Amino acid sequence: MADHSKEIVLRGAVFDERTASDICRVEHFDEADAEHFRAGIESGLYNLLSVEIDGDRRGSIILSWERGDTLTLFVNVLSAEHVPGVNIVSEMVDMLTVYAKAQGAGVLRFWTRREGLVRITEQMGFTRNYVMERAV
Question: Could you tell me where the beta strands, DSSP code E, fall in 28-119?
Fold first, then answer.
């Protein structure tokens, strides 16, 4: 059961070594990906938030907006340390949903290869939207 006594705060952040480390913890991401996101954050393409739990930075979130028929908040990176008693997925989805709605978005989107995360988020009302790709 989640410990709702722990305060979770998302705060605007500046790209730093912690951010790069959080990005590189994501499966299949490396220093080149960290550099891509650093450049995008500095240019304003992406927004960086620190994930703080009880005042300690425990991770990073990198967001962007996709404009189409419906404004979409896209979670490019969500990397946070495990904190006993905190259901980080549920907490982040709830917080990001409120933020997305306040900004006029109608969709919250992320990509993942993690089957466990797919199962958890499907139970929260997310649907699979497959992307096919190959190297060229």
Answer: 47-53, 56-66, 72-80, 107-110
